[in-house]
Amino acid sequence: MLNDTNYLIRLDDASTYMDFDKWNTIIEICKEHGIAPLIAIIPKCNDNEVMFGPEDIDQFDDFINNCLSANCSFALHGYTHELHNTNDNIIDVNQYAEYTGVSFSEQKKMIESGFEYLESKGIQDRFFVAPAHGFDHTTLAVLGSLSKDVVISDGYFNWPGYSDGLLWLPQQLWRPLSKEKRGLWTICLHPNNMTKEDISAFKAFIIKDNNNFLDFNFVANQEWKKLSYLDFFLSKMRIRWLKIKKFIIILLT
Predict the structure, then answer these.
(1) What is the bridge-based pairing of β-strands 84-85 and 183-189?
(2) Which helix (H) or strand (E) holds 200?
(3) CATH code of the domain in which 130 resides
(4) What is the pTM of this model?
């Protein structure tokens, strides 16, 4: 049930090249504590930065089936995860993207092919996670043109809401962190890059806050209001403040 403060867990960069040992460890921790995370999948990974071993399709299929049996949710996370430089992302976290600046027809081909890949693995979910938070208004138009409703995981809002005819579930945290402020907080983790200490901290966090976790499909099926221009303005300001804090930390170290 929804409380004043709830958490969602999102796990990015699953592919046939992922670090299966780390991912399986994270999934088993989630299963042990009744948490169903969102698994963000790269269908045809061609980005060396997120390749952590030789391609293993059979092990990947076993991983997907294990997650399906654990009621995990799944998201399309780009198509190849190949990034190019841009200053035109709607969510201004990074200056690179896979989708931003690409034509409507090409984006539609990439996105439709991506969801077809997920369906070939027995996945019916329609969540969308753009690599590096990189997407533009053309991406939104493509998502809105699809035959099934798509849910975006992105934006530094306090609560989910609708914009451009699409439901947005906010994503504001990149490490396990307890929040006293009211809201629905999505914690985005990258299991491929997690250390043993990171995994231990994650386990300790979910034990501490175990009663406050929800799953993505439950949240997507609730009633939410429309996001306002103020919501997007505040999201932009929060992201800008995060960048300033990061810059200050670099200066002081």
Answers:
(1) unpaired
(2) helix 196-208
(3) 3.20.20.370
(4) 0.91
Contact 126, 102 (CB under 8 A): no
Q: What is the DSSP string of 128-152?
A: E--GGG---HHHHHHHHHSSS--EE
Q: Which domain holds residue 32?
A: 5-227
Residue with tokens 């396990």: 176
Place of tokens 């201004």: 92
Per-residue pLDDT tens for 96-142? 999 999 999 999 999 999 999 999 999 999 999 999 999 999 999 99
- Angstrom CA distances, 149 to 191, 193, 240, stand at 28, 31, 30
Please give the full DSSP string across 96-131, using - where no structure is assigned. Answer: EESSTT--HHHHHHHHHHHHHHHHHTT----EE--G
- CA 21 vs. chain centroid, Å, equals 20
* Residue 132 within any structural domain of the chain: yes
Strand-pair category, 73-76 with 127-128: parallel
Task: Please indicate, yes or no, if residue 237 is contained in any of the structural domains.
Answer: no
Our CA angle for 206, 91, 186, nearest 5°, is: 10
Residue 185: φ, ψ to 5°: -110, 115
Q: Express each pLDDT in 132-185 by its tens digit.
A: 999 999 999 999 999 789 999 999 899 999 998 999 999 999 888 777 778 899
DSSP code, position 209: T
